[in-house]
Fold:
Amino acid sequence: MNSLKGFILRIARLSTGFIGLVTALNAVADGACGSAYAIETTLPSGARWSMCWEQTLQNGISLHHIAYQAKKGPKQDILFRAELAQVHVPYDDNSARYHDISDYGFGERNLLELNEQTCPNGSLIKYYGKAVLCQQILARGEELRSQNTSVQGYKLSIFSISQVGSYNYIPRWDFFDNGTMEFSVGATGALQKFTRGNESDVGWLIGPDKIGLSHLHNFFWRLDFDLAGNGANDYVEEINFVREDKGLKAKHEKLELETGRDVNPDTMRTWIVADKERKNAVNSPLAYEIQLYQAGQRDVGPEEEAFTKYDIYFTKAKECERFASHNGTADYCAKDLSTYLNGETLDEDLIVWPTTSFYHIPRAEDAPNMNLHWSGIRLKPFDWHNSNPLASSIR
Amino acid sequence: MSFFYRFLCGAISLVCFCTPAQAAPNPSLQCAGVNLKQAFTSDTAWSMCLSLDDQEGLTVNQLTYTTANRTRRVLGKGSLAQLETVFDDNRNPPSFATTREGFGGNQLISLKSKDCEGGSLYADQTGRKVICSRLQTAGLLYNYAYQAQRQTSFLEIFSISQTTDFQTYTQRWRFYENGVIEPALGFSGKIPRYAPVSLGFGRTVKNSEQLALGFSNYLGWRLDFDLGKDSDNDRVKELTSTLSASRRQRRLGIAVLDTEAARDLNPELKTTWLVEDGDEVNEFGQAIAYEIIPSQYYQSTSNVRGRPWLANDLYFTRYKECEKYASDNNSSDCARNVLHYIQDKENINRADLVVWYKQHYHYLPRSDDSDYISTDWVSFQLMPRDWTAGNPL
Structure:
């Protein structure tokens, strides 16, 4: 926890005493950044999202002080900070194993300038005169439907584009009016590596005498949760569904120490980050579920890439633990996720590192321009509300 | 066949024929339903016949994709051919929404124009508007620095069925400009069942006297591939990627599935499947193919009742007219479910091929869904592979 965060947390704690009265708790998010770095949006259904952004050489765009306010609900902080913390790209022939975020960077000159063509019906946000973020409000279809009753849903969508080698990566952050968040990365541009020939077991023919090399994109996010504005009282539970008494029972287990975990399709394993103090109307802790809905192509690499071992990691927050791999080791910091796991308690401020992998066997269609492929994770409200917040318009 | 196709009438730009169409292997060009064609500015286009079946609801028939000045058929028929539900307490046998209640007929919800903003509504044979069709923007198709960028869109088709008082399902198909097909099922409605706290199943969502029960929805998608001109010459290739001992290199393996088979997702091997045409090739000489891009792996194998057909993720069979549903297939003289369809190990190398994809979605109740469930989507994709030599867009 750095000193700025400590200071903000103290403000947040002061404010929580009045939480029942203060419906728009502005103390945390507001003032965390200047107006040039603030994004505040009210969606057509009345929900509000607010956050700050910043630009750095390696992460590109990071978001911080992410808060959500349901229509008629209080403004609640969710994430103190969220960013893409590595894109690891090993090639099938082992000719390259890139660490695109830490070694090349998504920011500065790799951050492409956007315009009205790349950002239709949206608004452009500038960094020192260069439009680097596109902000759009998009319809997302029906939020709910029962018989003839329905409500349409909307989302705030924010993206930037970073060029690394021949690849163009599009980190996208979607914020739904029901509180759900989807963080994704689109991969487009052009294939990076080729070999010659007409047949190959390390790639696929994409033109006469041209093989596009197969490769993986391992995406890692770093999410610093501060549910309801206080990161020191969040905890993680793993939920597994086990067969008991003929049916399926949800077994909740609190994760006490730093750990890496995997999806388990037999037990439909999932994880929630919950707040120790704040409860909803039926006394359930306010929580968010982390859904690894695109798991299934995880790649456990060689010994020296032990950070690829798990689908999701939970660590104690440390300012110097910035990247999933190739982390700077100044200030005695550990080098990657595998060594961040050193048995520390998760009882203080915690970081969640969700991952997803995309195995790309090129196709003839991938040249000259390669169509976008999206990889993502989802954060879903879990007893965050007392009832569906978008049903208020039909009650 | 008579109940298999329902007739739709009404709106502009659709054509009604009044004889039931034949499904593969001898497809007729006649459409019992809505003949729909959507062209994109890039000269690519989708065309299809949308039919409403009493049991399956919305089905997509004789689907063709036009790109690079060539029109080729992709699917003879695509449909959700079963939805089996088991509640977490497992006190009742599974329900079969497709084969018992049905997604069609009176279960289809009449749509208003606000339900289909920017699109067109199509009516069923009784004149009720139940299908929405619309073109939607999909953001960037590709971007390469400042040299190349292109926005794209997709055609979206959906209908909504109320299968029980509390369970609402949206059948949605998206057809992208670049040839990707995305079938999806949306889950909404109201929390369907509660159980006493003493049983210990479910979660508190609204009050503490009753617990809301979670449930498992098993989706059985049926994809009757008829690539290109001839529907009888398709084959399946299984692609696997094997790591070397050092785990630093991967080697691609390609195997043709010669006979009917059940197959599983495998993250370690990155298993994927192509359906390719036995004869037609692109300008590079590669077989034109569609790749099956699965999803929902993280819940895929849970199977509380131990139902045998749910043990595998994909089934590949040779087309048989009576093999209509993934499970609970009740027609006489026909096997009961996909697991039985593959028992006779018929040849599927250069055959009329049907792919069955089982997905599992588990609903975990939460307060945020009380009164009204926030719609959840389960989808997957079919993606062209070597359909064209190079990216035509």
